[in-house]
Amino acid sequence: MFKSLFSFKLIGDSLGIDLGTTNTLIYKKGKGIILNLPSVVAVNKKSGKVLGIGNEAKQMLGKTPQNILAIRPMLDGVIADFDITRKMVEYFLFRVQPQRVIIGSKLVIGVPSQATKVERRALVDIAKELGARKVYLVAEPVAAAIGADLPISEPVGNMIVDIGGGTSEAAIVSLNGVVVSNSTRTAGDEMDQAIVQYIKEKHNLYIGEGMAEQMKIDVACIYPPSENKKIKVSGRDLNIGFPSEIEIDSEEISIMLTPVLSSIADVVEKTLEECPPDLASDIMKNGIYLTGGGACLKGFDRYISERVRLSVKLVPEPLLSVALGLGKLLDNRDLLSTVEITPNLK
C-alpha cells in the first residue's frame, strides 16, 4: 500500500488529529485541514492483509465476501482494535507526510473527555510506534470549543454538545478545562441503526447502513418541514427475499429518530443538572453550542432547545470544529500546555 520514496525531511510536520469513529481529520500547521477520510479498514480475514483504507474501504461496507472484513477500528471515539487502528493511522500519516523524516512529527490528538487512562495510553503508544517525537492529548469538547472560537480561557462557562458517530458528549468548559461532562454511546451510528430497525419492522424491508445514512442526511428532519421531502429506499424484501423499493418521507424518519434523540437530550439535561451554580448563569446567557456530524440533523437544535428551555446554536463548522481547535493549539504552545490532559508524555 505504501510506495517507497527517497525524499527526506529533517523534522516531521506538526499535526492535529481528530481520530473519530466515523471519520478521521488531520490538520497540518500552516496548511489547515488536509485530510478527511472515513475511519474504515478492509482486511483479508485469512491473511490479515489490509485491502483498503478510507473511502475505498467504506465502499466495501456491507458488500464484502466472507473472506473480507470491512471494519471501523475505532469504537465510541477510542481504540477497539489496536493493530488495525495502527495501520489506519500509519496510512493517514503517510498520505499527509509521504517523506521520510529524521525527527518525528508533533501530534495533538483529540480524545473523549471521559476516556480512561488505558484508552489514552493506547493512542500515545500508537503515535510513538509510528515515530512521533511529541504527543499531546486534548479533550475533544475543549478542542471543539477552541475550534468554535468560544472564550474557554475566561472564567465563563460555555456548554458544548459534540454528537459524533460513536458518542455524544455534553460538557461545560471554563478556564481551559472541562468542569463537568457526560457522554453516551447513542450518536450518529445509533441513528442509522434506528432507521434500519424501523424499516425492517414496519415495512419488512432490510436495508444497509449506507442507505440509512443517506436517508438521514438527505431528508431527515425532526420537525415537519415546509416541504415534506421523500426518498426512495431500496433493500431486500423480507417476505419474498427479493430486492425491493419503497418511498419514505421526512415525517416518518423523524419518528424513527425520536428515541435516539431523546437519549442524547437526556445527557444534555444531566450535564445541566450537574452544572455548578456560578456557571449556570453563563449557560443561561450564552446558551448551548452544538457540534459534530449528528448536530447537522435538521431541527435538532430546536429539539434540544425545547427540551432544556435554553437557546441552542450550531457552531459555524460543526464537522470540523474539533480538528480546527487542535490546529489552533499547534500555533499556541502556552494554551496547549494548559489544556493537555496527559502531561509528561515524552
Descriptive account of the structure:
This protein is α/β, with parallel strands linked by helices and 346 residues long. It is built from eleven helices and 20 strands. A hairpin with a 2-residue loop joins strand 8 and strand 9. Helix 4 packs across helix 10. The longest helix has 24 residues. It is flat.
The number of E-state strands comes to 20
Number of individual domains: 3
Whole-number mean pLDDT: 91
Helix % is 25-40%
Helix/strand structural class? alpha/beta
Task: Extract low-pLDDT stretches.
Answer: none
What is CATH's topology name of the largest domain? Answer: Nucleotidyltransferase, domain 5
Distance between the termini: 30 Å
Question: Reading side by side through the largest sheet, how are the strands ordered?
Answer: 4-3-2-11-12
Overall radius of gyration: 21 Å
Q: How large is the share of residues in beta strands? A: 25-35%
| CATH homologous superfamily designation of the largest domain | ATPase, nucleotide binding domain
Please state the second-level CATH architecture of the largest domain.
2-Layer Sandwich
Count of runs of 4 or more consecutive helical residues: 11
Indicate the multimeric state: single chain
Described by strand count, sense and barrel closure, the largest sheet is:
5 strands, mixed
